[in-house]
Write a structure and sequence with these properties.
The chain has 205 residues and is α/β, with parallel strands linked by helices. The protein has helices at residues 18-29, 57-65, 84-92, 103-112, 126-136, 141-155, 170-185, 192-204, and strands spanning 7-12, 32-33, 36-38, 52-54, 69-75, 78-83, 97-100, 117-122, 163-166. It is 46% helix and 20% strand. Helix 1 (18-29) packs across helix 7 (170-185). The structure holds guanosine-5'-monophosphate. Residues 14, 36, 40, 71, 73, 75, 80-82, 100-102, 104-105 line the site of guanosine-5'-monophosphate.
């Protein structure tokens, strides 16, 4: 059997451009992307099964009961969860899987999958963050306010992450995140099997 893949957890403040960065990581580097389930209503342009699996609260609760998620959390009045089956299949195939999830979920994942890499994306400043959130035009003032407050809470957990990457220039940000992923793949812990095989082969030659 080949080597298992690892999880790439990407979190970041609402409005920081996580979605765009993640799409580029998938298209440029071929990483797998987990599609979460949520009880929030679809935004304009979002498609069921592409951005999210949109579920009723009841459907979501059922999935929790049947152990259908590897983690789930509540974020600004809605439920969000990572479906178990896809992640397990992909990891077993040796693919690295991106989870774009919030802080509670990220910490939960790290407990269950210690080799997951935790990356936090941030805007260059709080001012810039608010500007992006307002400029997106997909949320009303009340929601923006709630998300800014949530961002202040999330800032408290930023140091739980292993890597903090500033999304100022998109191309640079995508390259930086990929560099972190590549580096994680080269980590000594990841290479134990390779090392013993190399030693055995060298002895045999
Ligand atoms: P949004 O409503 O803006 O799409 O997402 C709100 C927040 O929920 C974001 O921080 C996003 O990363 C997070 N999120 C999306 N899917 C999941 C998930 O499956 N689990 C957890 N814990 N958070 C998620």
């Amino acid at each position: 059997m080949g080597k298992r893949g690892f999880l790439i957890v990407i979190s970041g403040f609402s409005g920081v451009g996580k979605g765009t960065v993640v799409k580029r990581l998938v298209s440029d580097y071929g990483y797998s992307l987990s599609v979460s389930a949520t009880t929030r209503a679809p935004r304009e342009g979002e498609m069921d099964g592409r951005e999210y699996y949109f579920k009723s609260r009841e459907e979501f609760m059922n999935l929790i009961d049947y152990n259908g998620f590897i983690e789930w959390a509540v974020y600004v009045d809605n439920y969000y969860g990572t479906p178990r089956a896809f992640v397990e299949q992909e990891l077993a195939l040796g693919h690295h899987v991106i989870l774009e999830i919030e802080v509670q979920g990220a910490l939960n994942i790290k407990r269950q999958y210690p080799d997951a890499v935790l990356i936090f994306l941030t805007a260059p400043s709080a001012y810039e963050l608010k500007k992006r959130l307002t400029g997106r035009g997909t949320e009303d003032a009340g929601v923006i306010e709630k998300r800014m407050r949530r961002a202040a809470e999330e800032a408290e957990d930023m140091d739980a992450y292993e890597y903090i990457i500033i999304n100022d220039d998109l191309d640079q940000c995508v390259q930086d995140v990929n560099a972190v992923i590549v580096a994680r793949g080269c980590m000594l812990e990841e290479k134990k099997e390779f090392i013993s095989q190399m030693k055995a082969e060298l002895k045999a030659l």
